[in-house]
Amino acid sequence: MKSTKRIISAVLAVFAAVSMTACSQKAKNIDTSTELGKNVEATASYVYKKLGNNPKQGTEMSVISLLESGYMDYWDDRAQNYVINMNTFIQKGGNKIADKKNILWDQYPIVFETFTACGIYADKTANADLTQGITVDAITLMGGFDNKINCLTALECGGLGVYQSYNNENLTREDLVEFILGLQQPDGSFSYSGMTDGLTVAKVTSDAVIALMSTAQTEEITRAANKGADYLKNTVKPTDDLYDVCATVIALNYAGRDARDYVDGLAIRAYSDGSYSKNTADKKGNIEDSSYVLLALSSQYRFEKGMAKVYDYSESYGMAHNKLSPMWKTYVNIMKVALGFIILGLIGLFILSRVRIAKWRKAGIYNERASRMYTDAELERIRKEKELHAQKLERENNRSVDETDAKEINETSTDVNEISGSGDDSGDE
C-alpha cells in the first residue's frame, strides 16, 4: 500500500512540475513553416531578450509587438510586470501619465493600447481614469494632432463600443472621426500644417487609415480610409524611411490589402540576430526599431493567417479578469489529465482494498471496525498469530485424536485377550 501511495505521489509531482513549467514559458504561438513566420520568430526573440524581465514606461511598442506576434501572451511575466510598473508610474504622477512634473500627453493612446493588449481595463487601472487622456479635447491636443488621431484607435482597440465616453467628457467617437476626416487632402493623404517631431505625411496618413478602419464603418469613413490607403500604395516605396514603411504595412493590412512587397523591403535593414535598424550605418539593430518592425511583420503575418488586426484587442480585452489565456488553457488541460490519473489511482486503490478485504475475510482475520486502527504490518502480525493459533489447535486436535485412538486400541487389545483366554479354558475341558 505504501509503495502504491509513493508511486501516485511521484506521478502527481511530475504533472505539477510539467504544468507549471509549461505556464512559465513564452507562448511562441508562431507558425514558422513560412519565411515570414521565421522572420517574426527571430525578431520577436530579439525583442523579448532585449526587453528584459522588468519593462517600464517607454517599452509599450515592444510589449504590444511581442503580444501581437504571438511570441508571448498577457500572462507572461514581462506583460504582467509592465502593468505593475506602469500602475506605479501613474500613481506617482498623481494618477496621470507623468514623469515627475512633466505630463506625457502624447503617451495616453499607446499606454491605453498596451494595457488593453495585456488584458487590463485601462480606464480603471491604477485608480485612474485614463479615458480622459483620449476623450478630453484639451488633453488630446496637448499631444498634437497625430496624437488625437491615435486616440480613436486607442478608444476602439478593445473592440467597438468597449470603452464608453463619460458624460463629463467632451470628445466622442463621432468628434474624433470628424476631426480625422477634416485632415484629408485632395490626393487622399492626411496631413496638417506645422507637423513636427519628425512626423511625415506617410505616418500621419497611416495613422488616420488605421483609426478610421478601427471604428464603425460608414460609406464616408470607408471611402476616406481607402483613399488614404491608395495614397500610401502609390507614394511610399519599400526602401523609404523604416517607420513610414512599417506604418504603411499596418495601414494597408487594416484596409484589407496585402503589404508583402513592403515587408520584403524591410529585409535590407535586417541583421542576422533578427534585429533591425532605421540607419543601416549603425551596423547593428536596436530594440526600438526592431519593435516597430516586429509589429509590421506581425500585421502582415496576421493578415495572411486571417487573424484579428494588430490593434484589435477584442480577443484579449479583459482576459486577465474573465477568461483564460492560451498558456493557462494548457495548464488547465494538463491538470485535467492529472485529475484523470488521480481518479484512476483512487479507483485502483479502491479495487485493491476490496481484494485485500476479501482475502482477509476468507482468512478470518478482518474486522471492519478494528481494521481502521491497524496498519498493514499489524494486520499481517495478527494474521500470523491467528495462523499459528490455528496450527496449535490443529496439533492439539491431532494429539487428542492420537490419544483417543491409542486408548481405543488398548481397550480393544484387552478385550481380545480376554476373549482369547476364555477360548483356551474351554478347549482344555
Proportion of β residues? under 5%
Main beta-sheet annotation = 2 strands, antiparallel
Helix content: 55-70%
The average pLDDT is 82
Question: Strands of the largest sheet, in order across it?
Answer: 1-2
* Poorly predicted tracts of residues: 20-27, 318-326
Q: Specify Rg, calculated over alpha carbons.
A: 41 Å
Number of helices: 17
Helix-strand topology string: HHHHEEHHHHHHHHHHHHH
Global geometry: elongated
Count of beta strands: 2
Distance between the termini: 85 Å
Q: Indicate the structural class.
A: mainly alpha
Question: Which terms summarize this structure?
Answer:
about 425 residues; mainly alpha; 17 helices; about 0% strand; elongated
Summarize the structure.
With 429 residues, this protein is an all-alpha fold.
Topology:
Elements: H1 2-24, H2 35-51, H3 60-69, H4 77-92, E1 98-99, E2 102-103, H5 108-117, H6 132-135, H7 137-142, H8 145-156, H9 173-181, H10 201-214, H11 219-235, H12 242-254, H13 260-265, H14 287-305, H15 319-322, H16 326-363, H17 376-428
Antiparallel strand pairs: 1-2
Describe what this molecule looks like in 3D.
Helix 3 runs parallel beside helix 5, helix 10 packs antiparallel against helix 11 and helix 10 runs parallel beside helix 12. Strand 1 and strand 2 form a beta hairpin. This protein has a two-stranded antiparallel ribbon. With 429 residues, it is mainly alpha-helical. It has 17 helices and two strands.
